[in-house]
Amino acid sequence: MLEELMRVGAATIAEESGMIHVLKRTFIPEQMAPELIEVFARGVRRYVETIDHNLGEQDASKRRFERWVFPDYGIREEDWIPFSDMVRDRLQEVIEDLETQFVLFRRPNAGVDRTLSVGVGLYLYKDDLADDKKFQEMLGTLVDDEERFERK
Question: Is the same domain home to 75 and 141?
């Protein structure tokens, strides 16, 4: 792992002390590398599992945190870059703060403690409203096709 982090410039080893210095807090694999496909699949799986859990959980206090925020009216295309820059900066601060809070929880004892893999995923999306309407039209077509099939 260290070799890969050094290869992509995310870490280095100081010659004088042998200490590992972290240069980047995140690692994004190369385009279409097997690691990127794994990151993609893991992210989709985790999000879908969260949605599935929340839909099936009657007790609201046991649902996992999942929120959306968006302006009802959208934003102008020319505001996309400043908006995405603002979101990136703010959410980077949140992620870094959460990362430092991990020390509040004891490290599981291997072979003794039941260990869970947990984390928080944040992402920014951008939909073109014209594409969204096409999707809604597709759904309408699917419903119409299903109704025709049921009548047969």
Answer: yes
pLDDT in tens, 40-71: 888 899 999 999 999 999 999 999 999 988 88
**Residue 87 and residue 113 in one domain:** yes
> Do 61 and 41 sit in the same domain of this protein?
yes
Token representation of residue 131: 């594409």
Distances (CA, A) of 10 to 16, 24, 27, 29, 66: 19, 5, 7, 11, 30
Contact 29, 35 (CB under 8 A): yes
- CA gap 36, 47 in Å, rounded: 17
Q: Which pair of structure tokens corresponds to residue 79?
A: 């505001």
